[in-house]
Sequence to fold (328 residues):
Amino acid sequence: MQIIDRPTDKMRKVVRIFCVSIIFNFQFSIFNSVTAQDSSYVRRVICDLSAPEMFGRGMQNRGDSIAAEYLRQELRALGVKPLGKDYFQYFRFPNTRTTPPIVKAGYRSQNVCGYIPGETDTMIVFTAHYEHLGMHGDTIFYGAHDNASGTAAVLDLARLVGSGQWVVDSIRGQVLPTTNYPLSTKYTYVFLFFGGEESGLVGSAYFADIPLIKMNKVKFLMNIDLFCGGDDGLMIVNANAPETKPYVDLLEQLNNERHYAAKIGRRDNAANSDHWHLSKQCPAVFIYTLGGPFGGYHSPTDTCEGCGLGNYNNFMTLLKTFLEHIEQ
Ligand SMILES: [Zn+2]
Fold:
């Protein structure tokens, strides 16, 4: 029943992941000055996570755990090191819910956590919730926009940082030999994929209570949730706090110079995604796209096919440029 857990399919998948990463690494070493994010990787991850075999990534058929295992394999393939118990931080749902996401009190799920060490233990953190509403009867809530898209973007950032070359070359202006990779960044990069978001930020609240990293060492945290579409630009939540404003100002300044997004909107802080609990402990923002195309919101129509990625490369180039400035 859980098709992706069959050994043969699993092996095929692992081989596919390795082939893909070899091809990408090759591209990075040849076309380093470009390092444009390839949206075909992100499309593949979004479609995998929102496939029927993930059952909407909720409690039904343990779809959340199938998705978590997928992320663990992906992080391994990208060379991201584990946090927690082999990438997992387990937690239990405190309350029963009878409407999607339907969940029983005591049901066990997990956050998926990894990092790429830098030259210092000061951290840049990216987060995204990977679970979704699961199933209601026979109806699957696929959750491509919410939030297979943000999950895929955070994996893509891990892929970028893990390539090891981009920051060093672009900032220090050095031409480096294609040996001795990966080269490290100044900061340590942490990638957190939360469960239980749709049930009330359960996974990220658990992480905030029992963090696997030193939260006072986090320089900046960005949570990505809803990343398909974006024809009207990007919105940043918690953009006006004294500790986050300089970062959002930088993003806006870079965007004004190079017009990656139609606009960058700003909102005050709100408990509307996984940055919320963590924003009490470090500078944390939540970024989401404005405008379509995407298939739907909290609807069975939120499919991979409906997820527009026409703006994706521009958004990722903006984030990459932003990180290059932070690394300086
Ligand atoms: Zn969401």
Summary: The chain has one domain: 3-327. The two ends are 50 Å apart (CA to CA). The first strand starts at residue 81 and ends at 82. Residues 58 and 176 are 45 Å apart (CA to CA).
